[in-house]
Structure formats: C-alpha cells, structure tokens
Amino acid sequence: MTAVDDGTATDRPLADIDAKVAASQAKPPTGLGRIVAAAMAGAVAEWYEFFLYGTASALVFGQVFFRSSGNAIDGVIAAFALYAVGFLARPFGGMLFGHFGDRLGRKALLQVSLVIVGVSTFLIGCLPTYGVIGSWAPILLVALRLVQGFAFGGEWGGAVLLVSEHSPDHRRGFWASWPQAGVPLGNILATLVMLALSAQLSDAQFLAWGWRVGFWLSAVVVIIGYWVRSSVDDAPIFREAQAKHRAEQQRSPGLIAVLRHHRRAVLIGIGARFAENILYYLVVTFSITYLKLVVHVDTAPILTLMLLAHLLHLAMIPAAGLLSDLIGRRPVYLTGAVLTAGWGFVAFPMMDTGNYAAIMVAITLGLAIESLTYAPYSALLTEMFPTRVRYTALSFCYQVAPILAGSLAPLIAVGLLDRLHSSVPISLYLVAAAVISVVAVGLARETVGTSLRAVDAAAAER
Q1: How confident is the model at residue 15, as a pLDDT?
Q2: How far is it, in rounded angstroms, from Cα 23 to Cα 370?
Q3: CA distance 423 to 438
Q4: Which of 354 and 222 is assigned the larger pLDDT?
Q5: Confidence of residue 76 (pLDDT cuts 50, 70, 90)
Q6: In angstroms, rounded to a whole number, what is the distance separating the alpha carbons of residues 438 and 268?
Q7: How many Å apart are CA 387 and CA 237, to the nearest integer?
Q8: Which tens digit of pLDDT belongs to each residue from 180-209?
Q9: Which of 222, 215, 258, 4 is CA-nearest to residue 114?
Q10: Taking the C-alpha atoms of 185, 188, 193 and 196 in order, what is their torsion angle to the nearest 10 degrees?
Q11: HEC string for 79-106
Q12: In the structure, what pLDDT confidence band is assigned to residue 426 with cuts at 50, 70 and 90?
C-alpha cells in the first residue's frame, strides 16, 4: 500500500481493512446516554459563558469596561475585540490538552478544563468597572478571557471523542452530534438568565450589577457538569491503544506528528469550519447588535426571539447528525455550506422590517443552515484521524479555525456596518466563508460508516 500523508485517501477502501480488523458495532453500548450527558456538560458550560459574554458585549461591556467616546458602536467594537481575544489562547489549550488527552485519557483532561472554565467565568462577574479601576478593567478582562480560551481549547475535542469513540459506527453522526447540541442548550440557559435579569431589573440596575449574576451562576453549571463526568470512563478503543503504546514504550506523538502525517486532513478540518463558524457568530452575536443599533428592537424581545431560536436549534443538530448517517457527511455538509452563502441576502432584509415573526424566521433559518455544517463535523473529524493522535488533531483543527473565522466575525461585521452602512458587504463576507468550506469539504473523503479500528489499522499500515 502506498504511503499517504493523512487519512483522506488510501489505495483501497477502509471498509476492506475494517473487515479484517473488527465488525461494526450493532447497537449503542450500555451507558451511552450517560456518556453523552457527560460530554454535553462541558459544552453547556462553555456556550453558556460564550453567549453570556457575547450578549453582555452587545448590551453592557462597551459601557462598563471602556472609556466612553460618545459613540455607542465604539464600545461595542472594543468589547467584540476582546471577544476575539479569547480565541487566541484556544489552539494552545487544544495542543496541551490534546497532547495529554491522547496520553493520559479524555476524561481526566475534561475534568481539569471544566474547573478552569468555571473559575475564570465566575471571576469575570467579579471584575471592577472602568469607572473604578480605569484601564485595569479591560486588562483584567483580557487576562480572564485568555484563561477561559485556554481551557476551552481542550474541551471540545475531549467531549466529542468521549462520545464518538463509544458510538456504533453506523450512528456515529447522530451520537457525536449531541455534544454539539450542548451549544444551543448553553445558549438557552444564558438567554433565560439574561432575559430574567433584564425583565426584573431596571436598565440602571442591570448595567450596574445585574449582568454579573449570570456569570456567577456559571458555577452551578460547572459543578453539575463535573459531577456527571465523574461517572464515565474512556472508550475501550482508547484504552486498548493506550495499553499498546505503553507496552511498546511509545510516547504520544503530539502535534508535530499530526502536522507531518496528516497535513491534508488538518487543512480540511480547518477550512470546513469557516462557513459554520462565521455564520453562527453572525446569527447569535452580531444579530443582537444589528437588531439593537440598526433596527432599534428592545433588549427583551431580542432575547426572547433568540431563546425560541435556540430551542429549535437544539432539535436541529441531532437531526442533521442523523441525516449525515443516512446520506453521508459530505452531502449534508456541502448543502449547508452552499446555503450559508445566501443567508445574509435573505436574513438582513427580514430583520430590517422590524417584524418579530420575520426576525424569528431569519434567525431560525440561519441556525438551521448552521446545523447542517456543525452536526456532521465531529463525526467527520473523528473518522479522519487515528486514535493515538485524535484528541490533538481534533482540538487543533477546531480551535485554529475560529481564530481566522468566528472570532473576528462580529468585529468585522460591526466594522463593515459602521463604515458602509449596509448589510450587503456582510453578506458577501459570508459568501467568501462558504467558498472556503465548499472547497475544503469537496477535498475530503466520505467517511460515513467507517470503523475507528479500521482507521487505526490503516494508519499503522502506512
């Protein structure tokens, strides 16, 4: 068999190797539901904080952590710039947690990351404002965002693998999409908290201290998540690979080996995220700013509409994951990427009407399209890399992409809106993102139904 540099192509189908290695699992293993819950716990905590921060950036942070310039949008731009900072530390966290996760186990590293997330999020709620400590306020906010980003860098890869490596081959898309569903669930919790606070408090109270309560409540989410995760263990395929490497006195190969032997798969994994990542942050973060500053919709209706959209998104993600099991990862993904290119041209005019029903349709449509590219991603990447480097590879791909994509999306969108006073350039920005993902996924091999043991066998043979 001719050697290749990644898992995207071989001289014979992986199915042939699969037949020699192990048969596909016939049904989900006992306790898979508990494993899914454990994996989702971190995602809920992560996205609770991120939606909380994104909402607070649009509504609060520009006023409490930065010097007033007299222009409301300047404070929002500054807050979104700090929003992007959190992404810079993610690849470093992904590399460190991935390396030790491939070496020591998925569960142990997930527990550590969850504790760091909880502490840093709670401390954001304790920060003094610019009026109290001046420039130290945004400096401390940056520091906590970097700590959060570092911890989040190792969260997704471990959570996805905890489920993917336990899942039956023919339903991996469905089961592995559930950690992704932790995103809308975390957003639902954050929206409920912010909605309740904004409804019960006056604008002055919410601005003075009410927003802090949401960050403090993250401790509850983290404690529950830690408790749930304590009851699960790593998958047999990982424990077998770990035992083999110990017996052979092999060290975990790390990121250098991933980039050396799986370059094409890494580029595909990074490029595939552009459409999904940019669309998501435009829908759930920038849309709040757009509706608030351009359409002049009040805070409570915006949060209510977001809540309803996230509830629908929670059902859309596993549905899209199941669809990827039935018709393939690539068809589902490519459909979502192509539809991403058209969302802005349809959605922003609908928002401009100020009609709540039209706004709801625009937001829900965006999340439905995003589901088609987000749900299959975890299974697709799991099936592209062998077990001994899988945590490192998944974390690296997943966390590097947002630095170039989603982390800058709200900032770029606000900048375009401020300079050009039109949503059309923002829509064109989405088209560019969609093109990158279409090319990346177009270069990928279809992986649906692939046995992870076959992937390991193919890697060993190479």
Answers
A1: 44
A2: 33
A3: 23
A4: 354
A5: low
A6: 10
A7: 8
A8: 998 889 888 888 888 788 788 887 888 788
A9: 222
A10: -150
A11: HHHHHHHHHHCHHHHHHHHHHHHHHHCH
A12: very high
* C-alpha distances in Å from residue 207, one per residue of 60, 148, 191, 198, 347: 6, 23, 16, 9, 30
Q: Bin 209: left if φ > 0, else alpha if -120 < ψ < 50, else beta.
A: alpha
Check residue 303 and report its DSSP letter. H
Region label for 130, one of left (φ > 0), alpha (ψ between -120 and 50) or beta (otherwise): alpha
Note the Cα 48 to chain centre separation in Å: 12
Instruction: Confirm if 165 and 238 have CB atoms less than 8 A apart.
Output: yes
Contacts of 281 (CB under 8 A, 6+ apart): 54, 406, 407, 409, 410
Rounded Cα gap, residues 264 and 301, in angstroms: 45
The tokens of 219 are what?
Answer: 């401790």
- State the pLDDT at residue 260: 87
User: Which domains, ranges and CATH numbers included, belong to the chain?
Assistant: 14-232+254-461 (1.20.1250.20)
Residue type, 18: D
The residue among 155, 200, 199, 195 whose CA lies nearest residue 179 is: 155
Q: Which long-range contacts (CB under 8 A, 24 or more apart) does 400-404 make?
A: 400/91, 400/94, 400/270, 401/269, 401/270, 401/271, 401/272, 401/273, 401/274, 401/277, 402/87, 402/90, 402/273, 402/277, 403/87, 403/88, 403/90, 403/91, 404/270, 404/274
Q: Which two tokens stand for residue 371?
A: 């589901």
Choice among 29-33, 107-111, 246-250, 426-430 with the minimum mean pLDDT:
246-250
The Cα 322–Cα 331 span in angstroms is: 13
And the tokens for 117?
């997330």
pLDDT classification of 276: cutoffs 50, 70, 90: very high
- Please name the amino acid found at residue 247: A
What is the C-alpha separation between 369 and 186, in angstroms, rounded?
Answer: 19
In the DSSP assignment, the letter for residue 170 is G
Q: Alpha carbon of 141 to those of 67, 126, 191, 246: distances in Å?
A: 14, 10, 21, 42
Q: Residue 58 in contact with residue 73, Cβ under 8 Å?
A: no
Cβ 101 vs Cβ 109: under 8 Å: yes
Task: Give dist(CA 180, CA 225) in Å, integer.
Answer: 15
Q: Are the CB atoms for 246 and 374 separated by under 8 Å?
A: no
- Asked if pLDDT for residue 257 goes beyond 70, the answer is yes
Place of tokens 């997704």: 156
pLDDT band at 70 (very low <50, low <70, confident <90, very high): low
Rounded to two decimals, what is the model's pTM?
0.80
